[in-house]
Amino acid sequence: MQEFFYMGGYAFYVWSAYAAVAVVLIANVIYPLRRRRRLLREIAQQLPPNIVHDAKA
What we know:
Radius of gyration: 22 Å
Order of helices and strands: HHH
Number of strands: 0
Structural class: mainly alpha
Shape: rod-shaped
Oligomer: single chain
Largest sheet: none
Helix content: over 70%
Distance between the termini: 58 Å
């Protein structure tokens, strides 16, 4: 098992590549969700209050 994690001497490069890919994949999920939430909040602030209230009901 230790041999697997050592990766024949290339462990640092292999595991850092996995980490970089994981960060990008997580960012690709989180960023659009946060952007959508922010855009919906901005749109709701621009609408008249009665329209926002009616839409929630």
